[in-house]
Amino acid sequence: MKKSISIFGLLTLISFTTFSCTKDEAKGTPKQPEVKKEEQKDKPKEKPEAQATTDALKIRDGIVVGYFSHLIPKDGIIIVPNSVNVISERAFEDCYYLKEIFIPSSVISIGDKAFSGCKNLQKIKLSEGLEFIGRFAFSKQKKNKGVLIDEGHWHTNKLTEVIIPNSVKLIGEEAFAGCKYLEKVQLPNSLRGIEYSVFQECSKLKTINIPKSLNEIKGWAFQETAITKITIPEGIEEVEGLTFYHCSKLKEVNLPKSLKKIGERAFNGTAISKITIPEGVEVIWISAFGDCSKLREINLPKSLKRIGERAFNGTAISKIIIPEGITYIPEETFRACTKLREINLPKSLQSIEKSAFERTAISKITIPDGVEDIDYEAFKNCTNLETIVLPNTLKSVGDLIFIGCKQLHSVRCLAVKPPYTYTPYILGYGAFKGLKADNQQIKLIVPKGSKALYEKASGWNKFSPIVEE
């Protein structure tokens, strides 16, 4: 009996051992040795499998429409599968866990706000095949109780470099705006246009190429970036308003021959020291080069037809030649150009507006025949101004045009009939108020036979002496 039990137990043990072996052992394959914890640490980390990231994505008919935050891999890396053609708008919006994403060549479009608010996004790999990057794709403006805060306040990501593939044709508005860590961008030759504010306030962006394929660059595109040099390609006809506004490190600008217009504040506050405006440019708009405190030299083309207000306000230019065809100098055009000593005005000029030459360093100036009106404060605080010649076509003179001109000692007016002056009863000051401060004597020279008229004319009778020549 004991012997029978022993034989039965032995058979049971052999059977249990046979069915406990692995599938590989059953086939004769030796079992892999167990990797120790120390060896696992040294083993290089592999990228996650596409299948593993697919589980984290909401995909419908080849379109990524969203994500499951609890299924985002711990390392924050997502590989979009080749079955995807479009990443829809807001697909990854506010995805806090996303750190890296790899987008395959099958994707042709990234929708508006697709990665908006992804604060921890450090790297994105875009592939050939991508044609469109939507508005706010990688940027997001802050809100206060649902209301947008003023421009300049952005939720940002941690992208430092972006390479746009050579298939992209258009980058949408504010696509990378406010990416404050972004330092380098490579744009493709396939690109046709850069929309509004694409790289606005990317404060560390200092390296970017402008491809020759571009047809247009919209306003605010590079506002307040750290770029130091820019060459705008041929074919571009307008540098739109605020395109390079307050790019405080921008020192060199090359403009194309195709250019026709420089928009409002396009280069305002940049560090350029000299610039040549090419022939063909017809308009330099409001404050286009205003507050460029290092700008010492600028050449205006003969094709120029219009200059905007404050176009060169606060620059360091010492000489300016205004071309024929310009009919008026707008208000504050050269205001606070404290080194401007020489001005050549065109025969086509008809009027000089408010504060046009205020606080310049001119010592003498001749206003050409054809000018009919000089607006108020036109030469205010020109402390070096000694003599001025006014034309025989002059009809009116504004308030305080010479106030603060402490060195002024001679005014020659060629008009036979005294030009109309604004009186204290109209604006409360008078055209020549302040000229006799500290017993200042200013000689007025008038045409022969006109002395008596000037001695009776309001404002003009303050000059002493009045002489005919």
Structural overview:
- The protein is mainly β.
- Among the domains are: 49-227, Leucine-rich repeat, LRR (right-handed beta-alpha superhelix), CATH 3.80.10.10; 363-469, Ribonuclease Inhibitor (Leucine-rich repeat, LRR (right-handed beta-alpha superhelix), Alpha-Beta Horseshoe).
- Helix content is 9%, strand content 21%.
- The chain has 5 helices and 38 strands.
- Strand 1 (57-60) and strand 2 form a beta hairpin.
- The longest helix has 19 residues, at 2-20.
- The radius of gyration is 36 Å and the shape is elongated.
- Residues 1-52, 143-153 and 424-428 have low confidence and may be disordered.
Q: How big a fraction of the residues is strand? A: 15-25%
Number of strands: 38
Rg: 36 Å
Q: Regarding CATH, which class of the domain at 49-227?
A: Alpha Beta
**Intertermini distance:** 154 Å
- In the CATH hierarchy, the third-tier topology of the domain at 49-227 is known as Leucine-rich repeat, LRR (right-handed beta-alpha superhelix)
Biggest sheet, spatial arrangement of strands:
1-2-4-6-8-14-16-18
Shape: elongated
Q: Count up the helices.
A: 5
Largest sheet: 8 strands, mixed
Share of helix, binned: under 10%
Mean pLDDT: 86
Structural class: mainly beta
CATH superfamily of the domain at 49-227: Ribonuclease Inhibitor
Overall CATH architecture of the domain at 49-227: Alpha-Beta Horseshoe
Model regions low in confidence, pLDDT < 50 over at least 5 residues: 1-52, 143-153, 424-428
